[in-house]
Design brief:
single chain, 129 residues, mainly alpha, 83% helix
Length: 129
């Protein structure tokens, strides 16, 4: 049973690596959050493979192992989904900030042109009289 639990933990780490890689390719998560998930996947793989780090497996009761694996998988999936939503919101926020900056720049340009037109109109009215 301990071998199956070790393989399951390593498998979860590998699946996490694949999920993070695909999410980074499709730009579902930001690079910083992706690096943290890669780190967690590496920790899972090391925990399942390194002889000194997998001693905790002997403490887990054989009957509770499937339930713990299911709970861990659901928890990791839920947290990954939440972090992808946060990443998407961060990207949208950055995009909106760029749009606001461009609109402010366009507004300043239009105000400058309006001031020039008013100055030109004042000069034209004073010359004609």
């Amino acid at each position: 049973m301990t071998d199956i639990l070790q393989l399951a933990v390593v498998g979860m780490g590998l699946i996490l690596f694949v999920m993070v890689f695909v999410s980074l390719v499709w730009q579902k998560i930001t690079e910083g959050i992706g690096l943290l998930w890669f780190l967690l996947g590496g920790v899972l793989i090391l925990t399942g493979t390194a002889p000194g780090l997998n001693d905790w497996i002997h403490v887990v009761p054989k009957e509770a192992a499937p339930a713990l694996l299911l709970i861990a998988a659901v928890l990791i999936t839920a947290l990954f989904y939440i972090s992808s939503l946060v990443s998407q919101l961060l990207r949208k926020n950055q995009e909106l900030a760029m749009h606001v900056s461009l609109l402010n720049q366009e507004n300043e340009s239009m105000l400058y042109e309006l001031r020039e037109l008013r100055e030109y109109q004042k000069d034209e009215n004073t010359v004609c009289r």
